[in-house]
Amino acid sequence: MNNYILVSIKGDYLNLFLRNCLNNNIYFRKIKYVSSNKIIVEIEKSNYNILKKRFKSYKIKKIKDIGFIYLQKQLKNNIHLIIAFIIGIFLLLFMSKIIIKIDIIHSDYELRRIIKLELEDYGVKRLSFKKSYKELQKIKNKIKEKYKDKIEWIEIINEGMVYSVRIEERIINENPPVVSNCHIVSKKDAFVTDIISSSGERLVDINTYVSKGEILISGDITFNNEIKASICAKGEVYGEVWYDVNLKIPLKKTLKEKTNNKRYNLKINNHKIFRSQYEFYTEEKNKIFDFFGVNFYWVKEYEYKEKEIIMTEEEALNYGLSKIDESFTNKFSLKEKVVSKKVLKKSLNDSTINIEVFVVVKEKISTVLTY
Amino acid sequence: MNIFNNMKSFLYEQNYSINLYNNKLYIFNYILLPKFNDKEINVKFEKFNIAITGKNLKITKMEKKELLIEGIINNINFNYE
Question: Rounded to an integer, what distance in angstroms lies between the CA atom of residue A124 and that of residue A129?
Fold first, then answer.
């Protein structure tokens, strides 16, 4: 592809000049006559210097590049503008694919919260990419299927960068519950310590022993040994229950001893940026921000050293007893507790100690029995 | 053979061409321009010459094989050698 330039030529006897150019194999793609002694021509760039050399008596001046080379120059001079324009287009396209806000339209806060969590599980959340129509249909159907007793209909509408979620709640008219009669009975053998009764006839007192299945609060209301009415008794009964626990405790124990060393690290989802320098460490991570499903965490690593210790008999015993406490209290509510523990038997082997512990526990022993 | 000749002549134009338009004369495949002023232009071809006479004659395109002459063209004379 030849590069052409625009040149102005000023001088006398221009016709002669043109003939001489032709004789020298210098050609002009276009000739424009400005005046009797001036022409503007389009000439190949390679011929310009030859022209200037051979025709010194004429005023030959380059005006500008034309054609492909002109475009090249323009591109080079405006490269920043072009790049900014292209980036702008990409940014526009990118931003148009992002969800800025999700509006769940319904009066019930709990339902809105449930739908929001469900949508987040499917990746529909603020500052994430928009889903295609097919994907949205799938998500809607899955949510409807999962909450078919709560949701009649769900619609997700894309309005610009916002997803509007409209829900129609399913209202089920429940039949009034059939009230049956019931007793409060004991589910274990126990020694009664507390009775809290709101309806029904109390049949046992505090500080009495009850066996499994015994009626504690009766639903039959009697008067003069006659059953006057039958209701569903309500109440709670607490009692002391006895347990026999056998435990085998190893004498060797590995302790985690914290050093004062601490390091910082960054995590992207589950991947660490820097390799950990410690052999043993515990981690504490705090989320900094998330970016389209990618979570960035600030991580603190605390070094510890593993220390193997051999416990004495007493230490092992105390350790065992604390484990018993832990195992019971993990299951208990506020009113329940371990009352006492007594070691009945202990035997020492090479590396373990076997103990038999009698544990007295105060717990809820009542349960409802309908009839 | 005919097709080949047609294609050859289409792709590789060897014949001359003189096209007259409104105040314009387009010449293709000329050899030389012996005389050139605003009243007369002589153009040499392989086997003949032409002399173009008129007023305000100007060459507005001067390529290796193409010429475009603008102006008031009164006469075109063909001289066969």
Answer: 8
Out of B33, B37, B60, whose CB is closest to A22?
Answer: B33
d(CA A369, CA A183): 5
Quote the CA–CA distance of A87 and A82 in Å, as a whole number: 9
Q: Does B58 contact A33 at a Cβ distance shorter than 8 Å?
A: yes
* pLDDT surpasses 60 at A224: yes
Whole-angstrom distance, CA of residue A40 vs CA of residue A247? 109
Interchain CB distance below 8 Å, A28 and B64: no
**Taking CB atoms and an 8 Å limit, are A27 and B60 in contact across chains?**
no
* DSSP-based helix, strand, coil % in chain A, nearest 5: 25, 50, 25
ipTM of the complex: 0.80
Q: Radius of gyration (Cα) for chain B, nearest Å?
A: 14
In chain B, which residues have their Cβ closer than 8 Å to the Cβ of A19? 33, 36
Structure tokens at A314: 């007493």
The secondary structure element, H or E, covering residue A29 is strand A28-35
The C-alpha atoms of residue A106 and residue A114 are separated, in whole angstroms, by 12
CB contact under 8 A, A21 and B61: no
Q: Do B36 and A18 touch (CB under 8 A)?
A: yes
Give A187-219 pLDDT, tens digit per residue. Answer: 999 999 999 988 888 999 999 999 999 999 998
A173 class by beta-carbon count within 10 Å (0-12 exposed, 13-18 middle, 19+ buried): exposed
A22 vs B: CB within 8 A: yes
Q: How far is CA A187 from the centre of its chain?
A: 43
> What would the DSSP string read from start to end of B10-57?
HHS--S-EEEEETTEEEEES--EEEEE-SSEEEEE-SSEEEEEEEEEE
- Provide the shortest C-alpha distance from residue A99 to chain B (in Å): 59
> Six-digit token pair at B37?
């002023």
Question: Which pLDDT does position B14 carry in this prediction?
Answer: 65
pLDDT, residue B75, reads 92
pTM for the model stands at 0.41
pLDDT in tens, A125-177: 888 889 889 999 999 999 999 988 888 899 999 888 899 999 998 887 766 66
Residues facing residue A28 across a β-bridge: A43, B62
Residue A163's DSSP bridge partners are A102, A158
Distance CA A100, CA A127 (A): 5
For residue A162, the number of C-alpha atoms closer than 13 Å in the C-beta half-sphere is 8
Closest CA to A27 of B59, B57, B53: B59
Residue B1 pLDDT level (bands cut at 50, 70, 90): low
